[in-house]
Amino acid sequence: MGRLDGKVIVLSAAAQGIGRAAAIAFAKEGALVTATDVNGELLKELDGIPGIKTKVVDVTKNDQVEALAKELDHVDVLFNVAGFVHHGTILDCEEADWDFTMDLNVKSMYRMCKAFLPKMLERKSGNIINMASVVSTIKGAVNRFVYATSKAAVIGLSKSIAVDFIEKGIRCNCICPGTVDTPSLRGRIQAQPDPEQAYKDFMARQKIGRMCTAEEVAYLCVYLASDESAYVTGTEHIIDAGWRL
Hints:
Layout: E1 8-11, H1 17-28, E2 32-37, H2 40-43, E3 52-56, H3 62-71, E4 77-80, H4 95-123, E5 126-131, H5 145-165, E6 170-177, E7 180-181, H6 183-190, H7 195-204, E8 212-213, H8 214-225, E9 236-239
Parallel strand pairs: 1-2, 1-4, 2-3, 4-5, 5-6, 6-9, 7-8
Helix pairs in contact: 1-8, 3-4, 4-5
EC number: 1.1.1.104, 1.1.1.30
Organism: Cynoglossus semilaevis (Tongue sole)
Catalytic activity: (R)-3-hydroxybutanoate + NAD(+) = acetoacetate + NADH + H(+)
């Protein structure tokens, strides 16, 4: 018996990084996983893994989100992972940067939660996990203006859903990682004028001496998706090796 045996789980941004690691970890624990992403080519790499089915979904599109929700009879766990990291201060953030970041990082979660909550409420059972960040209301970080703002909003969104539906069988929590070694992070490092220095800067803030792995975040995801966390709702789960301290 797996820790998630028979649970139906839907997640976004499953093609790489934390989303991919979580999808695989969920399936290994017996869940029936619908792994979605906007990148169909990368998503194909999950095809053939027992317990996982893939579907290309753009969570910034209402019609695609609503269609996904209608396809499934029910969902036990919804894990909203999709997000984007903008580099810069408020002076570097144009309106287009603000709009894109808030749409992907926050409004996509609004879309997904609003689409899947009704069926959860019908069953009086549901579990929502949202990807926030330690860079939010928890900690400021240099050159992360709109990213931090969006992740602070995710924490507020999660707490609001938790308190509104706590008596109707719904749980909602968020995960707040520090620096996670993912393809996205590596890409951002390589995009800097001096990638070697950018990497050193990231490593300098790792008090434990290394970055977090996507798999380590996935372990936390499994706990929150399982009945082991049945008494947990409305909370930020920090996994940052003490970076915030």
